[in-house]
Design brief:
single chain; alpha/beta; Rossmann fold; six-stranded parallel β-sheet; four-stranded mixed β-sheet; 8 helices; 32% helix; globular
């Protein structure tokens, strides 16, 4: 064994991994990435995501379909209050997964207003203001990293970064098939997409791990100082074998 392999084996052992298993093998996570949610590999990824989320105050909610996702979001909306004022407004990305969630039918009449960016063609300033006025922002994501509960978001028309930053509560809706093991897997997938001629990065790529937090003042942890104070990830487990939405 070379010095390099011996060093890496020691690192793997210290992290609790099999010292003989190289993470450079491009096929190592292939089964996990394509596994349906009901398979052992798929269940393990979801369990790992939930455990990682619990450690960073991120709630992971697995639901069967879009209707169940709407019910879960409605419960969060009803149980939460805006930080400023009394008006409850929700702003949603223009995204296939979000459009399929029948949120309005699960909310109390006239209690919460829902604004969807696909309802009208708006200028960037208007999109930002809608996000600033909302207490809940709903996005999807390119991927979700299971080992750290990190969301990977890319900007696109109707999918501004402000929706994940300005509202007090951020809710991300993803398919189970968008959960991947770790950051190294993400880089490999992005590299593969770019080599194939696709560009998933857009104008920016944002990685979000947990709600906004800081301990700058007297080492006291405060959530929501520079962004959302709460983060929820809703995982749709149905139709995992279909292509990812664009």
């Amino acid at each position: 064994m070379s010095d390099r392999h011996a060093f890496l084996a020691n690192v793997r052992a210290a992290l609790g991994h099999d010292p003989a298993t190289s993470r450079d093998d491009p096929t190592l996570f292939a089964a996990a990435e394509t596994a349906p949610s009901s398979s052992p590999a798929g269940t393990a990824l979801l369990d790992k995501l939930a455990a990682a989320g619990a450690a960073i105050q991120t709630t992971v909610i697995a639901v069967a379909d879009a209707a169940a996702a709407a019910a879960a979001i409605a419960r969060i909306a009803v149980d939460s209050r805006p930080e400023w004022g009394d008006a409850k407004q929700i702003v949603c990305w223009d995204h296939p997964l979000i459009s399929a969630v029948p949120l309005e039918t699960h909310l109390p009449p006239d209690a919460v207003s829902v604004h969807r960016f696909n309802d009208a063609v708006l200028q960037p300033e208007a999109l930002r203001q809608m996000s600033a006025d909302a207490y809940i922002g709903i996005t999807s994501a390119l991927y979700c990293l299971a080992d750290t509960a990190t969301l990977v978001l890319s900007t696109a028309p109707g999918q501004p970064r402000a929706t994940s930053l300005l509202p007090s509560i951020h809710i991300a809706v993803v398919r189970h098939s968008q959960i991947i093991p770790d950051l190294k897997t993400l880089y490999r997938l992005l590299d593969s997409d770019i080599r194939d001629g696709d560009d998933p990065l857009g104008n920016s790529l944002t990685m979000i791990t947990g709600p906004s937090k800081t301990a700058d003042i007297e080492a006291t942890m405060v959530h929501g100082a520079h962004g959302p104070r709460a983060l929820h990830i809703i995982v749709l487990t149905e139709r995992d074998n279909e292509p990812l939405p664009v």
